[in-house]
Amino acid sequence: MDSPDFTEREQQLAAVYDKMHAARETATIVSDLYAQAMGDVYPHEINAAGAVDWPLIATIVGALRLEPGHQLVDLGCGTGGIGLWLARALATHVTGVDISATAVRIATGRAREFVPAERARFTVGSLRATGLPDRHANGLVCVDALGCELDRAAALREIYRILRPGARAVVTSGRRRTNPVLPPWPEQAAYAGLICEAEEERPHEPLLWQRLYWLWIEHETDLRKQLGDEPTDSMLIEARTRGATLDDRCSLAVTLRRPEE
């Protein structure tokens, strides 16, 4: 994706995710392996490429406190599953933003399965520059995307900008238990003008990823047949490098709020 609003690294990242989403669009193996790894907490209809499970959805619904007609933003939306599911369940509008034009195309095509056309919109943008108006959102979700943004502070400032005063965001985040690189969440939030209302640890999530990574490695041949070599190589590199760090990982669902004025 060649965009004047994207840095060189963002353009490279967009190209990687374009290839990944294109490969997974017609394949079933990835969702099958996620379902196998998650068991009965896997929300099949959402079909997310991340650690989206029923406990996380419950946390999001309870934290955002959205009302019918409100505006939800799904930041780093991928193919749109969680934002569309929430929009239908809570009778809201949803705007999804993702760095991958391919993901945005797929999400747009899925929207009619969940909500009327006028209640869903998907657009290409980055976490630090969504292109959305100021004070656009009554609530925001950002699931398994924040770790891809090198400038965490810029992404949090963008979340502050697009939230309405008093509105909340739920972001998922991982950190090391020993020698964490980033400051504590209350400090990160305050730097962006936000309030950290809650940090909910998800102790089962590292085990979920471990099971998934084992399945990716075990099913390498099938992955190559359905996805091709390049996406499979990327998945196996992730499984072998990130998998080795999971024992030290603390997975969180963090609730942030823009203060009232």
Automatic annotation (TrEMBL):
<dbReference type="GO" id="GO:0008168">
    <property type="term" value="F:methyltransferase activity"/>
</dbReference>
<dbReference type="Pfam" id="PF13649">
    <property type="entry name" value="Methyltransf_25"/>
</dbReference>
<dbReference type="InterPro" id="IPR050508">
    <property type="entry name" value="Methyltransf_Superfamily"/>
</dbReference>
<dbReference type="InterPro" id="IPR029063">
    <property type="entry name" value="SAM-dependent_MTases_sf"/>
</dbReference>
<dbReference type="InterPro" id="IPR041698">
    <property type="entry name" value="Methyltransf_25"/>
</dbReference>
<protein>
    <recommendedName>
        <fullName>Methyltransferase domain-containing protein</fullName>
    </recommendedName>
</protein>
<feature type="domain" description="Methyltransferase">
    <location>
        <begin position="73"/>
        <end position="166"/>
    </location>
</feature>
